[in-house]
């Protein structure tokens, strides 16, 4: 689709401008005692998983407008993610959704993954919709259901997911439950929680000792009165009930408007219970928009908290699983994913620039203005040349989206897969 040589040719035409911008920024940072190459190395090492369900055009219950050339099977999804990774060198793994993307020919998939320098990041279970051959319905819940037959079906599905993951060397099971209720009185809150905890414990016991279970929360949708796991506190309590290998997953879009997400991140890091992150953007209450597209300063404050926790030796938190989880309704999904990764890396880079010694001093001395200005200084620095340089040094494109367009990749995919091909997913 696009060769490394073609990427280098495209870089060549941008090199002069890039070098000018990079030299200016590098010299300025150097004067302030910041080790520029160390920052570049950290940015180059930062990898974000791409979900197998986000390579097609998303939609709403009102309609879906496909971009054309969508991947028709798991193999083509791997090819698409391989392409993203070749362009930005920052998307080296896939989150697999079961049953939309059940691995069939495992040796062939392993070979394809290796050819594209990719691994499987996590397997994600789905008990939010009924499959055609399913003996019981999830209409009134899955792991929380009043009927043990339904709960057992959902437990077995999660165990199946673990087995699919084991075959492909994954080590993470991500559980998001759509369980909840739409009307007051419909569900007994305490019993629904207890049944969920016990169901999760059955899954947890079936998990290999070196696996992690990530428990994701969401305040509403698909249910509009109550969700069984609506907030981080519920996720956290379930993790404590299950054991050390259960961790909370924070999805940026799964919060009510104006929630202080950075504080939640700080809390969970403090408890050593932050296991993973789902990146997306949100305006009202959705979880579908491009990462960083609506509230870039809040996104920076979240990353600031993450970097602070990751660099503090007092914090005993496992390394985090980073993944994009958005739905692309209007844009070409591959362009949207490239934009998302750019936004994540740019924001991460800014957080790395924060002078933590000075910030800590300002906080200890209650110097509110200096503390805030230190954050704003990093946030307002244009770090894009550092991100471009990290990609260039890793063999990627200086400008991945420009390279994607110059290589006419979507046109090529439409020619190969057809205008009407539809990817399974959101
Ligand atoms: Mn999510």
TrEMBL record:
Keywords assigned: Isomerase, Manganese, Metal-binding
Domain of life (superkingdom): Bacteria
Molecular function via GO: isomerase activity; metal ion binding
Signal peptide interval: none
Transmembrane segments: none
Protein name as it appears in the record: Sugar isomerase
InterPro entries xrefs: L-rhamnose_isomerase (IPR050337), Xyl_isomerase-like_sf (IPR036237), Xyl_isomerase-like_TIM-brl (IPR013022)
SUPFAM superfamilies, A to Z: Xylose isomerase-like (SSF51658)
Domain Xylose isomerase-like TIM barrel residue range list: 103-287
Key word Transferase present: no
């Amino acid at each position: 689709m696009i060769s490394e040589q073609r990427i280098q040719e495209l870089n060549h035409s941008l090199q002069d401008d890039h070098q000018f911008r990079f030299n200016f920024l590098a010299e300025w940072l150097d004067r302030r005692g910041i080790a520029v190459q160390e920052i570049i190395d950290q940015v180059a090492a930062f990898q974000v998983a791409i979900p197998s369900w986000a390579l097609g055009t998303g939609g709403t219950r009102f309609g879906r407008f496909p971009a054309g050339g969508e991947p028709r099977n798991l193999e083509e999804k791997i090819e698409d993610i391989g392409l993203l990774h070749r362009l930005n060198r920052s998307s080296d793994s896939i989150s697999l959704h079961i049953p939309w993307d059940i691995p069939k020919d495992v040796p062939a998939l392993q070979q394809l993954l290796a050819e594209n320098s990719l691994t499987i990041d996590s397997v994600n279970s789905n008990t939010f919709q009924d499959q055609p051959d399913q003996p019981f319905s999830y209409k009134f819940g899955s792991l929380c259901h009043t009927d043990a037959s339904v709960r057992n079906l959902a437990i077995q599905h999660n165990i199946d997911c673990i087995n699919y993951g084991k075959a492909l060397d994954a080590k993470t099971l991500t559980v998001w439950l759509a369980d909840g209720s739409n009307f007051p009185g419909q569900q007994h809150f305490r019993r629904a929680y207890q049944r969920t905890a016990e169901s999760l414990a059955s899954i947890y016991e079936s998990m290999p000792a070196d696996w992690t279970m990530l428990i994701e929360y969401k305040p509403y949708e698909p249910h509009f009165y109550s969700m069984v796991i609506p907030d981080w506190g519920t996720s956290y309590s379930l993790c404590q009930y299950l054991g050390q290998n259960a961790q909370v997953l924070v999805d940026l879009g799964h919060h009510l408007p104006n929630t202080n997400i950075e504080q939640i991140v700080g809390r969970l890091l403090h408890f050593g219970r932050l296991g993973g992150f789902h990146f997306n953007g949100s305006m009202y209450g959705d979880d579908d928009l491009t990462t960083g597209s609506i509230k870039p300063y809040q996104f920076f404050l979240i990353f600031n908290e993450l970097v602070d926790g990751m660099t503090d030796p007092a914090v005993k938190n496992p390394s985090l699983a980073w993944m994009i989880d958005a739905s692309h309704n209007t844009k070409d999904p591959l362009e949207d994913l490239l934009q998302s990764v750019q936004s994540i890396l740019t924001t991460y880079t800014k957080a790395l620039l924060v002078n933590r010694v000075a910030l800590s001093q300002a906080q200890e001395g209650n110097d509110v203005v200096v503390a805030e200005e230190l954050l704003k200084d990093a946030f307002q620095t244009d770090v894009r040349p550092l991100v471009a340089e990290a990609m260039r040094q890793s063999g990627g494109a200086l400008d991945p989206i420009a390279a994607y367009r110059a290589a006419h990749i979507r046109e090529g995919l439409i020619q190969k897969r057809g205008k009407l091909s539809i990817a399974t997913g959101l």
